[in-house]
Design goal:
71 residues, mainly beta, four-stranded antiparallel sheet, 1 helix
């Protein structure tokens, strides 16, 4: 469900061996989940999925926008 109703928030076209992306979705209980997926041209695979921890991640409060280091 999180993948089907999610939105791609980052794309990694140069990942090896296949391009990948980060999807922001919600699980069946409405909790935000990040899903990293790859696409080999014939189908997609989930690499990992996790519930973002606001204390440990590098995303803004919207969990869509990565915090960029200044400098």
């Amino acid at each position: 469900m999180a993948v089907l109703n999610g939105e791609i928030i980052e794309q990694y076209p140069d990942d090896f061996p296949f391009p990948s992306c980060l999807v922001l979705g919600r699980d069946d209980h409405g909790r935000v989940i990040h899903i990293c997926m790859s696409d080999n041209g014939e189908g997609s695979e989930i690499i990992t999925a996790y519930e973002p921890n606001k204390d440990k991640i590098v995303f803004e409060d919207d969990l869509r926008t990565r915090i960029r280091k200044k400098g």
